[in-house]
Each structure stands twice: as structure tokens, then as C-alpha cells.
Amino acid sequence: TISDDVAARTYMQAVRDQLPRFMLDAGTTNANRWEGEIAFRSPEGLARTFTVIAQVVRESDGSVHHWATIARDITEERQARAELDRIATHDALTGLPNRVLFLRKTTEALERAGTTGVKVAVLFIDLDKLKHVNDTIGHAVGDQLIVSIAKRLANATRPNDTVARIAGDEFVVLCEGVLDDHVALDIAERIRTAITGPLVLHGVEIEAGASVGVAMATDDLLAEMSPADAAVTLLHSADTAMYRAKQRGRGRSELFNDQMRTAARERAALAAELEQALAGDQFEIVYQPIELAHAGRIAAVEAFLRWNHPTKGQLSPVAFIDLADESGLIAPIGDWVLDTAAADLRTWMDAGLVDRGTCLHVNVSRRQLADTTFVDRTANVLRERGLDGTQLVYETGESTLIDSNPAVLRTVNALKRNGVRIAVDDFGAGNSSLAALRTFPADILKIDGTLVRDVGRTDGGDDPMVRSIIQLAHSLDLSVCAEWVTSDDQLQRLRVLGCDLVQGNRIGSNAARDEFADRLSKRRVSDDATN
């Protein structure tokens, strides 16, 4: 057809125009074959790409007699590959670059900075209240909130800035050509201000807000590591600054500084040492008794992890448990704690130092509870150590109570089917959610020691707060344990208030395994003599 002839002529002209010139030179005698790609526009105006094999046939003098091509249309293949690359490098909800593409662009920017001296900054933006919106209004509204924030970010940033979404409520911005720290912080504040303000989504008004962390690429950073490693470090630094902003009250911007840098390096070093601690037998468990408030009898023993660091001395979990959680080491460390403590309890039971029904309290994190293998691993330890599921109490913080993670709830319910009980630790110390308490399948509420501390004072102390918590817990069929009980006055008042369990130095301080066993032995002798 005429259209085919036109297409053929268009194609052949494109090949002639794009073939290397030496292929058609009369003086060339050893270049008769070429393979490559040819781009041309069809008569209909569509851009097409072909892979081409061109063969030139020459006369004896080297002039071109004729040439022929074999071609394959790879336009759709190229488009599919480009779409796969787009999916792999962009956020599906907002269309913004994702972490992979952002780090690639940051690496390229740092490579340019190494030669041109242009300053580079990364802004880490964490949205406030997204989880609350998802939980209370729904994920559809939460998604719309994210899309709206992405649009606000696009309008607030400069044309050459790169905006990316790297997690559920986390955005990042790459800024090149930033003069100094102050300018970077000004940019962050302008962006934060643009994000902040009411949004009406699905008929609901939502007050949007964010915390922003800022990190500048320093000359030292570029000198110490490759651009790719520096990009990852810069992102982590901005993340650290963002968390500092959240700690200082949210709705603000913070610049990553030398103090944060020093803390980050110490944290990284500690994380590396943590990997060796388990294999190096550096962990230890100390125990504290938990008594029935009215009977004065040991009902349970709580196991507390300690790290006997070779240079820093004994460290409590406050110093390293977040690192263990982030690195994934929390699983093997947690398994070791449960197995060791269960073995000790079994030994004390067999020796008659504790009653057969004595329970073991062990702390667990949200990450552990979200692990799909956690229930089976727990059951295996209990079976191997000869303990019943009813003798184990897993303690978890208020953050787990508030976080309605379906995986966590599935694990908790599976544990409870095996007889394991769940305690909410340090209740009252954070953002306690009474609504969540009604729906979370807990068995024991442990009142934070900061509330118990002043119970029993002549002026009433925190009696009303503690009384209310005890009454609330009992109305939900929860037992109550008071922490930090250090005096007889506290103990007597807690009994009057109806507290079920007590724990603290008045009952017994923390002690390592052998010392704790000695205390149990002396207590057993004393109880026998009294009876």
C-alpha cells in the first residue's frame, strides 16, 4: 500500500541518516556490518525504535553497491521496560520518586558537589497524625492526606529540588545550591509552614502538620566515603534531626549538628558491638520478684536484660534495645532471654525455691510481636524447659497498646490461646489510650512507678490517679501491678486501693541469678520458720 511505501521510505531514510558515516564511505573496505538502534517517527507521527543489523555490499573499489537491513521493532519492549523502571523507582500513590530513586539522585548530586563545590542538603519530613487519621477516619482519607501533602510539597519547593516519598508518612527533599546551614533551615521552615494548615478531605477537616530534619553534606563527609555511602549517611542524618524535632515538641525544624553526629557515631559503634555481644556471652539477666499485694507471697519473677559491655560496664536495655530492634538482633536476643530465664525458673521450681505456679515476666517489643514465627518459638522454649503457657507473661509498652498493628494483634491472640498472658508495662507514663485498653487483649496493667512513687504520702500524693487506674483496670477484668514500691506506706496504701500485685525494692531489688537464688532460699527458710 501507499502508506506501507511511505513508512518504508521513512524507515530507510532514518537508517541512512543514523548509520555511522564510515559505513557508507567509498574508501572503507573493512566496515561492512553494523548493529545498533535506530529511532524514527512513523508517517502517523508515532516515535518508534528498532534494533537494526545493516549489511553493506561493496564494489571492488570499495564503493557501496547496495546495503540491506534486518530490523526488529522494540518500541513496546522499551516502553514496558521504562514502565517497570518507573514502578521500581516511584511511589505508587503520589507518583513521586521513592527511596531508591532519591538515593540515586542524591548520589549524583554529591558526585557533582565533589567537583563543583555546590552545597547539598537533605530534608526529612515526617507527617504528624497520619496514623491517627488512618485509625479513626480510614485509610482512604489517610491516602488522600498524603496526596494533598505531596502537592503542597511540590508547590513549596524550588524547581530543581527533588521531592520523594520514602515511607508511609515520610517525605524527603534533595536541595542543591544551598549556601549554608541557615539557608537550608530557612528552606525547611518554609516547607514545613506550607505543609501546616487545615485540609478538608471527604468532608472532614484535618489539621496537617510536620516535623522536619535537615542535614548538610559537609566536606568531611564527602572526603570520608563514596558518594553512594554519603547519600545514605546524609539521609540517616536528616532522619536523626527529624526525630530530635519530634522529641522537642513536633511542628518544628531541626538541623543535624556536631552533637547529633557524635551521638550517631557512638550509636553506630554500639550497634556493631551489639552483634558480638550475644556470641561473646556478654548478656546477663537480673531478676526481681513480684508479690501478691495482700498475701505477701511471690507470684512471679521478672527478667531484666543487662549487657556487660567490655569497656562501658553494665548497660540497661535503655542504652541498646532500640538498636537491637532496628538491626533485627532483637529476635535472637529475645530468644536467649526467654530460654535462659525459663531455665532458671525451672531450676528454682525443682529446688523448691518457688511455687510450681510461679510466673515469669519477660519484656517484648512490637517488632517481636509482629514476627510471624514468634508464637512457635515461644512454645518451643516453654516445652523444652518444662513450663506451662500460663506461667509466662509477656510485658509490652503503651506504644504497642496504641499501635493497632494487625500482625501484633494476631500474635497476641495466638499467645493467649496458648495460655500466655499479656501485661501493659509502664501504664500512665506516656500517651495512655483508654479506648485502646478496652480493645487490646491485655491481662495485666502495670502502673508506672512515677505515679506510684508518691502513693501513701500524708497529702494523698497520686492516690486519685492510681485509684482511678485500678478501678478502670478491674472494670475491664484486668489485674493491676504497681511498680517502684519502695516503702511500707506505699505498700499499705496500695492494698487499701485494691492493687493486686506489687513490685519494687520494698519487695526485692534486682539481683543476678545466683544471688537471687540465695534470696529465694533464705526467704523460703524464713517462711517455713514462720509457719
Summarize the structure.
This protein is of the alpha/beta class and 531 residues long. It contains 21 helices and 20 strands. The protein has an eight-stranded mixed barrel.
* DSSP helical segment count: 21
Mean pLDDT: 88
* Fraction of residues in H or I helices: 40-55%
CATH architecture of the largest domain: Alpha-Beta Barrel
Protein model, in words:
The chain has 531 residues and is an alpha/beta fold. 48% of the residues lie in helices and 24% in strands. It has three domains: 77 residues, PAS domain (Beta-Lactamase, 2-Layer Sandwich), CATH 3.30.450.20; 166 residues, Reverse transcriptase/Diguanylate cyclase domain (Alpha-Beta Plaits); 248 residues, EAL domain (TIM Barrel, Alpha-Beta Barrel). The chain has 21 helices and 20 strands. The chain has an eight-stranded mixed barrel. Strands 5-6-4-9-10 form a five-stranded mixed beta sheet, sandwiched between helices. It has a three-stranded antiparallel beta sheet with strand order 1-2-3. Helix 4 crosses helix 9. The model has no long low-confidence stretch (mean pLDDT 88).
Question: How are the SSEs placed, and which strands pair?
Answer:
Layout: H1 2-18, H2 21-24, E1 33-41, E2 47-58, E3 64-73, H3 75-89, H4 99-116, E4 120-127, H5 130-136, H6 139-156, E5 162-167, E6 170-176, H7 181-195, E7 197-201, E8 204-208, E9 210-216, H8 219-224, H9 227-247, E10 253-255, H10 258-279, E11 283-292, E12 298-309, E13 313-315, H11 321-327, H12 330-350, E14 359-363, H13 366-370, H14 374-385, E15 392-396, H15 398-402, H16 406-417, E16 421-427, H17 434-439, E17 444-447, H18 449-452, H19 463-475, E18 479-482, H20 488-497, E19 501-503, E20 511-512, H21 513-530
Parallel strand pairs: 9-10, 12-14, 14-15, 15-16, 16-17, 17-18, 18-19
Antiparallel strand pairs: 1-2, 2-3, 4-6, 4-9, 5-6, 7-8, 11-12, 11-19, 11-20, 12-13
Helix pairs in contact: 4-9, 5-6, 6-7, 12-14
